[in-house]
Amino acid sequence: MSDVTSAAAPAPSDFIRDIVAQHVAENRYAKIVTRFPPEPNGYLHIGHAKSICLNFGIAREHQGQCNLRFDDTNPVKEDIEYVQSITTDVQWLIAGWADHCLGFKPKGAHPAKVTSNGQPDYYLAPVAPGAGSEAFFASDYFDQLYDYAIELIRRGKAYVCDLSPEDTEKYRGAPDRPGQDSPFRNRSVAENLDLFQRMKAGEFPDGARSLRSKIDMASPNMWLRDPLLYRIRHVAHHHAGDKWCIYPLYDYAHCLSDYLEGITHSICTLEFVDHRPLYDWVLESLGLPRTLPHQYEFAKLNLAYTLVSKRKLLQLVNEKVVTGWDDPRMPTISGLRRRGIPASALRTFVTGVGVTKFDSLTEAAVFENAVRNDLNAVAQRRLAVLKPIKLVLTNIAAGEVIECDATNNPQDENPTTRKVALTREVFIEAEDFAEVPPPKYFRLKPGGEVRLKYACIIKLDELVKDAAGAITELRCTAQLDTRSGQPNADKKVKGTIHWVSATQCIEAEVRLYDRLFTVAEPAAEENFLKVVNPKSLEVVTAKLEASLAFARHGELYQFERLGYFTPDAKDSVPGKLILNRTITLKDTWAK
RNA sequence: UGCCCGAUGGUGUAAUGGUAGCACGAACGACUCUGACUCGUUCUGUCUAGGUUCGAGUCCUAGUCGGGCAGCCA
Fold it and tell me: Taking the C1' atom of B16, which residue's CA lies nearest?
């Protein structure tokens, strides 16, 4: 076992895990059950990765379970495409780490009638993912939610309101000014029951009426001023079909969904702190027979030079700033995956930033460090030249091939090797030669010596220029006795550069990605589209060592001295290789 | 001029009334057939003012600063 894998990762600790640990110590719950509840209205991004790792992490630390649940109560914004991408992304992120904690439900299952503490109750039991199972959907609870709404009306805790959306807003008041009771607030239970049933039956147009909680229009907490429970929307639902024309709102549906699934800890982001009293109000108002779930909030992830807003990411997609949600420049999980970032690196990163209630901005270097650390241990080393310049080894005959052993990964305990061909003509990186070198330049310069990695030391004898004065060829002498195993193998030179044989290489398209934005906080811009980095993608035709000919998606490479690369999942095909640069190597010289 | 949440080096985070630690970063150095990796040295911190206490980053009060809340979005 390597040092990397044997070094036990420190057990994460944060204020939410402390609370859960306390509950476990108190034996408060039979099992810890969390949930990851995305709305299927966009692709998951790196901010969601933090929430996924928190929720699944807590579940795995306590032999618990974490349900994937689609919070799909607003059909006008949601789409089946997103439920598919989200399911894929979640499973990819937790694979080999917390997949045994993932809670699904039998396909098509709805909450079942059960008896809890002698009272009638509803509960939806989880199953392991697999054939015949699917994620949970809040929309599978619409029947129960409707029944619970009836119960709220019967208890005098909800009423049908005829105020228009505009008037509802006016009656709500402002943060520093109390609202006013709706004129429909004191309807009889019978009238509310009748009206709500007719809302469900489709008798009223969108926005004509709503079902509202009856709490306190003068509350200093805006979310307690009789927030809406149901609105009328005459649209079909991507999962529930066309059965409904009234749809529950988040605050009403979420807490009850948690309850129906037996969630113990409902973890969300800080903007819901103000909603917590409402979360509790709904559950407590119904006199439910089982232990109630509780909500805990943490600060969402903010990462420098990246956007974590589904709405803005959608805009980048719609305005074709990127090629799609899974463009390798996107901070979406699918984009990061396509770029070549391992799930383990993502997990290490989001776990490392911690969980607090402080609204922070994490430096890009922290993310980059996590990616490089992860990749350094596993990426196979290869030689590739991105921007070639031809170099002729004048003392090697045309047609002669000298085989050299190249190490596949020096980080391995017992590194393996492969053969690379040294020939008379090779390509080196244009950047690795300077006719007029700056101070402390270790690479090739007129009259200078440098080592061709895994081959031998060479000396630059002559520059060949075209009519315009541009250098077309570097003519060098190969010191063949400095090859590995040869008498002068230990000869030292300051610089070692990468290269590929000009006659035994393959060509490939390589996509060089850079950060998508030019400013650290694109979200703070008046118009984030104006700070898109025009150089976020550069495409080059690179020369690769021949062994890369059959490189496939999923394989992780380090091109020595350049960075980490992986074949593109969508566009790379056998015979026409296309690679994405995941990230460069750290370069302490460039600056 | 309401309510809620927060504040520890440049950044992120730990310390649960008892030695302010870790990571990233930066600088310098060692090593190097990757200017990578690795290793070494150095750098910088408890928002302010009171209070409680033998002792406060931690508890209390006030202030300052930052964030959130007036969707029939989540």
Answer: A18
In angstroms, the CA A283 to CA A287 distance is 7
Q: What is the ipTM of this complex?
A: 0.97
pLDDT the model gives residue A432: 97
Q: Of all nucleotides in the shown strands, which has a C1' nearest the CA of A381? A: B34
The model's pTM: 0.96
Q: Which residues pair with A559 in a beta bridge?
A: A382, A563
Residues 6+ apart with CB under 8 A from A134: A104, A105, A107, A108
Closest nucleotide to residue A176 (Cα to C1')?
A: B2
| pLDDT bracket for residue A591 (50, 70, 90) | low
- Whole-number Å distance, CA A580 to C1' B68? 39
Inter-residue contact A559 to A383 (CB < 8 Å): yes
The tens digit of pLDDT for each residue in A510-538 reads 999 999 999 999 999 999 999 999 999 99
Asked whether A392 and A424 are in contact (CB, 8 A), the reply is yes
Instruction: Identify the CA nearest to A140 among candidates A75, A200, A70, A197.
Output: A70
Q: What is the DSSP string of A149-202?
A: HHHHHHTTSEEEE---HHHHHHHH-BTTB-----TTTT--HHHHHHHHHHHHHT
pLDDT attached to residue A138? 98
Both structure tokens of A292: 């109630």
Position A4 scores a pLDDT of 35
Closest residue (CA) to C1' of nucleotide B74 is A250
Query: CA at A70, C1' at B39: how many angstroms apart?
Result: 49
pLDDT in tens, A544-559: 999 999 999 999 999 9
pLDDT at position A8 is 52
User: How far is C-alpha A570 from the geometric centre of its chain's CA atoms?
Assistant: 18
Could you tell me if A290 and A317 are in contact, meaning their C-beta atoms sit under 8 angstroms apart?
A: no
pLDDT at A431 over 90: yes
Alpha carbon A212 to its chain's center: 36
CB atoms within 10 A of CB A527: 7
Cβ partners under 8 Å of residue A326, min gap 6: A43, A332, A334, A335, A337, A338, A570
What single letter denotes the amino acid at residue A517? F
How sure is the predictor about A2, in pLDDT bands with cuts at 50, 70 and 90? very low
Helices A15-25 & A46-61, crossing angle to 10 degrees?
Answer: 20
Q: Confirm if A322 and A334 have CB atoms less than 8 A apart.
A: no
CA atoms within 13 Å, Cβ hemisphere of A91:
13
How far is residue A90's CA from residue A78's CA, in Å, rounded to a whole number?
18
Q: Which nucleotides of chain B are near protein (any atom < 7 Å from a CB)? A: 1-8, 10-16, 23-27, 33-38, 66-74
- Secondary structure of residue A96 in the 3-state scheme: coil
Report the nearest residue to nucleotide B26, CA vs C1'.
A588
Give A201-221 pLDDT, tens digit per residue.
Answer: 999 999 999 999 999 999 999
**What distances in angstroms separate CA A379 from CA A386, A420, A582, one per listed residue?**
18, 18, 11
